Prior knowledge:
The protein is an all-alpha fold. It has a single domain (7-197, 209-437), classed as MFS general substrate transporter like domains (Growth Hormone, Chain: A). It is built from 20 helices and no strands. It has helices at 2-6, 8-29, 32-43, 51-82, 85-93, 96-104, 108-125, 128-140, 146-170, 173-194, 211-234, 237-268, 272-301, 303-322, 328-334, 337-340, 343-354, 360-390, 401-418, 433-437. Helix 2 (8-29) runs parallel beside helix 9. The protein is globular. Pfam families: MFS_1. It is found in: Membrane. Belongs to the major facilitator superfamily. Phosphate:H(+) symporter (TC 2.A.1.9) family. Residues 423-442 are annotated as: Disordered.
Amino acid sequence: MVGWWKNNREVRLLVHLLLPLCLHWTAEEMTHSVLVDVTTNALCPAQSTCPQAIYLNGLQQTTVGIFKMVVLPVLGQLSDDHGRKPFLLFTVSTSIFPFTLIVINKSKGFVYAYYVLRTINLIFTQGSIYCITAAYIADVVDDNTKAASFSWMMGLFSTSHVLGNALARFLPGAYIFLVSVVLLIFSPVYMAIYLSETVTPAPKADQRLPYFKAAYKIVQEQYNSMRYAANVVISSPTLKCISLALFCYELGMSGVNSTLLYYLKAAFGFDKNQFSEILMVVGVGSIISQLLVLPIITPLVGEHVVLCAACISSAVYALLYGLAWAPWVPYFTASLGVVNVLVKPSSFALISKAASSTDQGKAQGFILAVQSIAILLSPLAMTPLTNLFLSKNAPFDCKGFSFVCASFAVAISLCFASMLKPNTSNQPSEVDAENVEAPFLS
């Protein structure tokens, strides 16, 4: 670790990557707790429970999950072939437009328009930023410091959560979205000026082909590249096991995260300030665990043990939210986020070590696409179940029953994680070299 800090070039590259991303995440997070009140006030005035908002949120998550299955592997492959920087610039820039609508107006029509643009934005950013950023970091650092580097990345993500929620807690509501848009604009501008490229773009193919032949070639190259990415994951026992574990984990936790604030508002009457306080509890603990604890314990116990511990904590986290019997219980449960957040850095490190240097974007992107299938399926059960048990027609008195169900899905992910046999290298599968190296787009 000491040697890593002595490499000024690596530090400089990571600073120019993580600083604008930190501002981007801060800008998005500061709107999170406020958006619940904005949506509820616009769609269900003077009501604490808003079925329209819950279903709209579930529809957004399902739509994003459908398209992410295609978009994530494509962006991962394209970043391998054409460079990380243009796709990072593209993904962070798309967040500007939906939040600008809320700055202009918070009426019902603008809220619906926000959800349309935000859905399109999330298709390209949810998971893609992590995928391309993880691949960028893998380009820069060596295997011995990857776990610590990914931990610092997620630690800064948690720091952004704390900063964002602190701003949401103390800034007047009228200025929150305006400040967010300013930060969202600053991030891609900074990247465009200072971020260095780490990948040599693939040479452009002959563009003098007839239109239909060129279109057919693009489709064929896309199919071959995605087939290769799938083969990379399936042929590796480590990557395959991680895929199953993260699928079940996301199946449970994405449902919890998408409906949690609406559940707390309906069950306990929480408002913007209490949302911000709970999210800050998670964020502060996450900073400590990711920036300080994980770099120390990972060399001692390994990423596999860290992943299993995080899955156990996440299952308890979902169960306690589901059985919460008093307003203080969510605050206590939020403290488990200290361990929960270690799922991403530990899985990033395991995936990176199991994939070859030329397949980092493909492997990260494909496994995130597998997770997107879970994000697609989760609201199909969680949204109606949450709405049912929050209504007066609930079969029995357990407002958080959907969270109890989610905890079982996370427990299944623990079973797959415990069977994981991590390896530190993975050779490319036997695929036609011409198809493997071909870029997606001519």
